[in-house]
Amino acid sequence: MAKQKAAFDEIGYWSEIKLEIIKEYAAAYSQVLSAQRQARFEHVYIDGFAGSGLHLSKTSGQVVAGSPLVALQIQPPFKHYYFIDIEAVKVQSLEDIAGEREDVDVFHGDCNEVLLERVFPHVRYDQFKRGLCLLDPYGLHLDWQVIRAAGQSRSIEVFLNFPVADMNRNVLWRHPERVPVEQLRRMRRYWGDETWRDVAYTTEAGLFGDIEEKASMEVIVAAFRKRLREVAQFRYVPQPIPMRNNQGAVVYYLYFASQNQTGARIASDILNKYRDYGMM
Fold first, then answer.
1. Which residues make Cβ contacts (< 8 Å) with residue 84, sequence separation at least 6?
2. Closest by alpha carbon to 48, among 160, 166, 162, 171?
3. pTM of the model
4. pLDDT at 248 over 70
5. Looking at domain 9-167+227-273, what is its CATH homologous superfamily?
C-alpha cells in the first residue's frame, strides 16, 4: 500500500518568526550545553505538537522547515530528539524524516500523555539530563500538568504558546454564563484550575446590582506569567511576546520559562528582538 502523503500546514509569517526564535535559541542552548566540561550533560530537544516537519508559507508559497527539521539542523547537535503528534499522517512524515537515525524517537499520540509517561522521565536533573521543549498547540489542547511537570523537573525549559485567539473566541466572553461547558473544561485543563475566572472577570457594584467586567488580555497574560513562576516553579519567565497576524491582531503569546538565568537572558534578548513584529 502506498504511503499517504502528508498535508503540510499553511503558516503565516508570525509562525515563521516563531521558527526563527526557536532556531536562534536552540542554537545558543546547544552551544552552551555542549561546551560544559564539569559534568556529562546530555541535552535533548522535545516537540510536543511537532506536525509533519514541513510547512507551506502563506507569504512565499514555498515549503519551509518546521520545528523538528529546524532542531535537527542545529549545530552542535542535541543528544536526542523526541517528536510527538496526534495525527497519523504527520507522524508518518516525521518517521520518514528521521529515517534510520537512532537519536530520534517519534511518538503517535496525545502529547499530554506521551510527555508525562514516556519522555519527561528520561530528562532527569540528577542524571545531568537537560531538555528544551516546544509546546506549540493550535489552541487549548495542552494540559497544565505537562507545564507544571516541566517546571518542577528543574531540567526542562519550555517555549509555550498561550492561545489567546482560541480563548477569546470560545471562552472569554463578555457574558461568561453563556460559555459552553466543554469550552470551560478546555480552559480549566490548560490553566490548571478555576483561578482563571478570578483573573478574567471582576465584579463591580452597579446602580442596579453587581456588574461582571471582563479583564484585559494584558492582565490575563501577566497572571499566567506569575502562575508559571509561582505554581509551575520556573525561576525565570521573561515577558512573553505577542505573535500577530497580518491584520495586527494577536493570535497567541509566546512564553519562555526556565530554571537557568543565562538561558533566560539569552531568550529574553531574542524575544525582544522580535517583539514589535507585526505592529500596524
1. 46, 47, 48, 49, 50, 106, 107, 108, 109, 111, 114, 115, 119
2. 160
3. 0.92
4. yes
5. Vaccinia Virus protein VP39 (3.40.50.150)
